[in-house]
Structures are given as structure tokens and as C-alpha cells.
Amino acid sequence: MDGASFYDDNDVFKTYMQRRQRGESPNDTIEKPVMMELIGAVRGKRILDLGCGDAAFGRESLAHGCASYLGIEGSQNMVNVAKETLAGTKGEVIHTTLENWDYPTAAFDLVVSRLVLHYVDDLHMLLTNIHKALVSSGQFIFSAEHPVITSSDKGWQSGTQRQDWIVDHYFDTGKRVTNWMGGSVRKYHRTLEDYFRETQRAGFTIEQLREGHPQRENFLTDETYQRRKRIPLFLMMSLSKQS
Ligand SMILES: C[S@@+](CC[C@H](N)C(=O)[O-])C[C@H]1O[C@@H](n2cnc3c(N)ncnc32)[C@H](O)[C@@H]1O
Are 149 and 164 in contact (CB under 8 A)? Predict the structure, then answer.
């Protein structure tokens, strides 16, 4: 299944939402703190969120005074939750894929995409569309599964806690099919170099690259903190449009 249809499998969706809500999810302990630091103040900004999921980021951004928030989301299950999250706000969500949406020109100050790019096959086309949709000096800030994670899922069984991680076939980039959350999903593995080169090729200036170094104060238990220091889960990049 592709990245959007995957979340329309009701069992997968239920498992995913339960796991996101658990106390020490890596999204909350690692990805979110770094992304919030990279994003900084949103006051007055027009925000586009690609693969917005439940749009929790939209609700928070609107509460912090962003000028507008638009989420693009491919899964109907996620769109339903996003609409509930944004109810009573001026935030909006459109049900379509990142590949099929008709990107407007110079319409956003900030484009965010959190943990979605590894589901996208044609990264160049997407990055070109994002560059077009940003105003001059606009920012694109994204997180993706880290390349050491997307390279291989050897030695891991879905539903069990991973004991060790195997990095393999690192330079054989492209499609991967992984069993995850009780379903099977298609992802795309890229090297760190690929992300670097493709973002520059689309015209972006790279401002920051982060790997989600865990910070003790974000964890409830030392056990989880020690475990999360073993391997990077996320890659985050902050990019700007200079012209
Ligand atoms: C791991 S979830 C992350 C959701 C949200 N960004 C967050 O961080 O909470 C990935 C989301 O991307 C969506 N998605 C994946 N591929 C997509 C595509 N090609 N077009 C639109 N949405 C997509 C999925 O439906 C899902 O909601």
C-alpha cells in the first residue's frame, strides 16, 4: 500500500493513533522538540502542512497566531480526525495526495512536512512544487525517517521491540516494503547525500540538518532515553528559498 492508503486500513489507523498517544512516543520525545526549534515563531505566517495527519500542528500553530493553516492529507481517516482537530478554527484541510495537489505560486511563508517524504517516490517533483509554493525567503522544514532506518528492516519483526538495528543495502536506494503497525507499506529509501543533493537541486538553501539527538529532559524514563540514544530515528532539515 502507498503511504496514504496505508492509514485508511482501519486496523492500522487504530494501532497508529494508539501508539502516537502513548507517553513516550519518539514523535513527542525526539521529532517534535527538534521540529519546534527549527520552525520557531509562527505568528503571522501562512502555513502549508503536507501530510498533516491529525492536524495537531495546525491547531497549535493557529493558537500561536499563524495567519493561516492549510493541511494536505491523503488518508480519509486522517482527514476526518484533522477536521475535528481544526473545528472552530480558521484552519483547513484538503483530502488529496502530495503528488496530485495543484500547488499555488508564492502562497506560503512556511511549508512543513512531518514524517511523510519517505512515502514519496518522486522527491524532485515534490520539492520543485514546494519551492514554487513558497514566497521569497520562505522556509521548508521537514522530518523523515532517518536513512539508517529506511535502508533495511532486517532482523526486526513488526509488533516486537527491536533489539538491534541492521543497516544494509544503504546505497541501493529506492522502494522498500515494510511490515509495520499490522499492515504492509511502501516507502522510499534515500541516503543522506540524496536528501542534501535533491533539496539543493530544487533551489533550496540548506540552513540546518539535524538527526534528533535525544535530550534527557524529554523522556519519562532513563531506560527509554538510553534506548533512543542507540540509533537515529529521524532526519530533519530546515531549508530556505532565497529567490
Ligand atoms: C507518519 S504520518 C505523520 C502525520 C503528521 N504529519 C504527524 O507528524 O503527526 C504520515 C501521514 O502522511 C500521509 N501521507 C503519506 N503519503 C502521502 C501522500 N503521498 N500524499 C498525502 N498524504 C500522505 C499519511 O496519510 C499520514 O497521515
Answer: no
In sequence order, the β-bridge partners of residue 175 are 188
Question: What is the signed CA dihedral for 118, 124, 125, 129, rounded to 10 degrees?
Answer: 90
Yes or no: domain 3-148+191-241 corresponds to CATH 3.40.50.150: yes
* Residues contacting ligand 1 via CB (< 6 Å): 3-4, 7, 51-53, 73-75, 78, 97-99, 114-116, 119-120
Instruction: For residue 222, report the distance from its CA to the centre of ligand 1, in Å.
Output: 30
Element (H, E) at 225: helix 222-228
Q: How far is the CA of 55 from the centre of ligand 1 (A)?
A: 10
Q: What DSSP character marks residue 81?
A: H
Q: Which residues pair with 174 in a beta bridge?
A: 189
Looking at ligand 1, which atom is closest to the CA of residue 8? 25
Q: What angle do CA 192, 174, 182 make, to 5 degrees?
A: 100
- Residues 47-100 have pLDDT tens digits of 999 999 999 999 999 999 999 999 999 999 999 999 999 999 999 999 999 999
Nearest ligand 1 atom, CA 2: 16
Atom of ligand 1 nearest to the CA of 143: 8
For the chain, the domains span 3-148+191-241
Ramachandran quadrant class, 131 (left: phi over 0; alpha: psi -120 to 50; beta: rest): alpha
Prediction pTM value: 0.96
Ligand 1 pocket test: pick from 6, 77, 116, 233 the residue with the most ligand atoms within 8 Å of its Cβ: 116
pLDDT digits (tens, 9 = 90+) for 171-182: 999 999 988 878
* Residues 81, 2: Cα–Cα separation, whole Å: 20
